[in-house]
User: What shape does this take?
Amino acid sequence: MLENIQHTVNYIKHRIGDFEPEIGIILGTGLGGLVNEIEVEKQLMYSNIPAFPISTLEFHSGKLIFGKLAGQKVVAMQGRLHYYEGYSMQEITFPVRVMKMLGIKTLFVSNASGSLNPDFKKGDLMVIEDHINLQPENPLAGRNDEDFGPRFPDMSQPYQRSLISKALDIAKQNNISCHKGVYVAVPGPNLETRAEYRYLRIIGGDAVGMSTVPEVIVAKHMSLPVFAISVLTDEGFGEELEPVSVEEIIAVAQEAEPKMTLILKELIASLNA
Assistant: This one.
């Protein structure tokens, strides 16, 4: 894997010249609009990058965007990869390792997820403070490469507390409904049953989704600080569940996206201070 990563990194560096990103961003379902805020210097299609996995979802663009956001040099993944697409966990997290080797110092992750907490409503935001991993594979399984990180990385603080605190302050200052909670990662692609929603709430979840955790595990393996935020696109609680479609989820995500974008921009700008 190290050889593939190095080959990919060399190709990207050749294409972007002396641009050195400081921040990595992974944009979730329906949340690709943040790139409109980036002063773009270079775009690379996943399909043109050697060894880079390609997103199979029609609503994920599949581009690496290089440019400036809030005064910081960033590389943004417009389109992420999911386990349910048939990729291995190593393939899903390959871009995180590439971004780290390109020089990023912090990783920002967004996703669309379903609320499990009756106090967290559709259209609200949730800053992730911890997670529960119910996905069937781990991206660190197999032989460990000490060049990346230790065999048994600590996960007592998977999300950077200082960034969580700043993000909640930014949300409060801008009258944005934003909570702090626990994200549960499941395999997908089906949405959850009523019984599954109840179970996920009982075990401590505030929101459920099908991504994020593999990337966070690998980031922590490589000693990369992480901030993650969810847009809550549907509600998995109550006596009766309303049927929900992917189209509705994307529509809610896009409607709430400006609030998430504001928080991310101000949070990234604060790193200059």
Observations:
- The chain has one domain: 2-270.
- The mean pLDDT is 94.
- DSSP finds six helices and nine strands in the chain.
- The beta strands are 23-27, 39-45, 63-69, 72-78, 106-115, 125-133, 178-185, 207-209, 226-235.
